[in-house]
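Sorry to interrupt, but I need a hand with the structure work. Could you write out one complete protein record for me, on any chain you like? Just paste the record in under my message, thanks.

. . .
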Amino acid sequence: MENVHLAVEDEDLYSGYNDFNSTFFTEELENDIGFQQALRTSQGRRPLMTAKLPGTAIGGRPLASSFGSRVPLASSAGRPVTGAVQEGAARPMTSIRAAGYTSTMMRGSTFDTLGQHRGPAPPLEGKNEDGPEEKIKIMEKKVNDLIEESCMAYSSGASQLALEKAKEARRKEQALVRQREQSGTADHINLDLTYSVLLNLANQYEHNEMYPEALNTYQVIVKNKMFNNPGRLKVNMGNIYFQQKNYPKAIKFYRMALDQISNAHKEMRIKIMQNIGVVFLRMGQYSDAITSFEHIMRESPNITTGYNLVLCNYATGDREGMKKAFQMLISVPLGIDDEDKYIPATDDSSTNMVIDAIKNDKLYQMERDKKAQAEKYIMTTAKLIAPAIETSFASGFDWCVDMVKASQYVELANDLEINKAITYLRQKDFNQAVETLKTFEKKDSRVKSVAATNLSFIYFLEKDYDQADRYADLAMNANRYNPAALVNKGNTVFVKQDYEKAAEFFKEALKNDSSCTEGLYNLGLTYKRLNRLEDALDCFLKLNAILRNSDQVMCQIADLYEQLGDLQQAIEWLMQVISVTPTDPHILAKLGKLHNDEGEKSQALHYYSESFRYFPSNINVITWLGAYYLDTQFCENAIQYFERATLIQPTQVKWQLMVASCYRRSGNYQKALETYQNIHRKFPDNVECLRFLVRLSTDMGLKEVQDYATKLKKAEKTKEIQEQTAATAPEESAAAAKTFHFLLPMSLMRAAAQRNLMHTMWTRWGLLWRDQKQEQRESWKKTSLMKILETTFCQSRWICSVL
């Protein structure tokens, strides 16, 4: 209706229409149906008009051609043909109004083709967002945005947020479907959008380990026949059953998916068969797993499948199968170009720039990771099957080395030889390990450096520091940038107590490899020996950033904080150690000591008790616990700890005295008396025991009190003599040694037997010297040694015969 223009009442629609000769108006001849039909006839005559033309609503109009002739022709219904007008009326030219003509245009009026006199164009009409179709499109866009946000959240590690977005997308999609049904456009439901929403929701359920919900969502997709290829999602369902360790159902769904995937999708079928083989492997059905893996290795071999095939044959003990599988593994093509392409070979700067750009790009990193994985699998399988494929470990390893040398992994042969030596080390066959490693001394520098490094380590463990130092120098000469060789060299210097030089070697190792944890740890220990505690703490803090859960590193940090006087920091680091190794009794005892130093007795009691629970033989812990309960007047609790100490050190009388003291303090005098009597029988000269026996006997009115008093006086006198002797013993022993050395005749050193006799005489002489009085010692100094020996050892015939 916007193209229909109503005329004003006083406007003559046909004025000026025939003011020109229509004979020369030829522009519309191309659209004149009658003229074109006349041209197509054989005689060139215009055909007669029929009496009926459809599509008109007004009758009685004459038919006019482009040449101006007007032939009135009415239809049988009294209607003129389309375009006919009444006689004498001018026809409006509405068909050329867009070109600037109007029905009111008179002769001499201005021709305005561009319509510049009409004024500016009206503004564009905005979209009507209130319409149902527009609302549906907006809702679809919101659903797509939620799916995208869910995927992005999962990729960033926010699994819970991804699940919430997926659920919201599902709710909005269901509302969208209901709106379609209410508006009567259910046939236009976006099935692709529904499929995307359900698939994303199922994936997010799976990622959040909500396996029943994920399986239900996958079932909704699989049972809907309107979706394309829903059978592939049975692979996902099989994966969920695999995660749940429901292996029979996993195999069932994998096989269902395999049946619904055509042979055109070869890679997909191979991956599903690989999953089936892995499930058989987990179930222990190695024969079925071998069948699946062998089929894959024939159709589309890959490193992972070859590795699994070797493992299955090893599990079945099939020697020939292991050899065959290993040969298939090392023959798998990696599809990686030669690394020489990354080496600049020309002086072309543009080419070198391209090489520098691709030298460490993601593709090169992927190739490097793939190659590293292949080498790891080959090394692991070789070490695994070497003892099993032949009668001896050495011959089996030699076979593996020969196979690798004949393959594309020829550079791994030397590494296998070194691993052979390391295996000898693990078997504690050091001689074979040394012989194997010594064979590399004449090979290329890289292998030579690795072999010398291992030899240096072996000799260092055997405490042959000279050989360790020699091979460390050899490894460094072969490869100065070998961090392990530098660490070994630093260790050999460390044991010689040249700590400054050792620190230099450890620093150089870290300069060559910043991730060398051994060098960093040893550097920290070196700084501790140099009393550079701040530098040592810095080293161990850096190491803790690399080895987050290393209890040794955290213990070193705690020890350094304790030496620096920051006990609170030491306690915090030891608490981290306890979080890693909660049953370490020494760490618990250390925590107890630090809390005790801080005055926190209750915390100290807790950690000491925990340490005693895990290791009840630490005498220091037992001593602290017993003393704590004595101080707090809980003597009954202290008895068990001192009795434990008595079992650990039965020859130490103090623990038994502490047990008796606990009984005495708790008021159990009878038990205390019995304990003291037992101690007296074992240690009759113990003065403290006799004192308490006298005291208890007096308090209890026992008749043995006089006997104990007599023994006490004798024991005290003996103790006094021993203390005086001990006070003068160092000076007298030195004088005796001087006199003995001066008087000793040289004839006693003429033979080995005489030298052995020297030790016996020296011991006896010292005992005699100690027991004699001062007057006798002075006379001995004036007498010859031979005479003293003859008078002293006259009963010892064997001594006299030797003399």
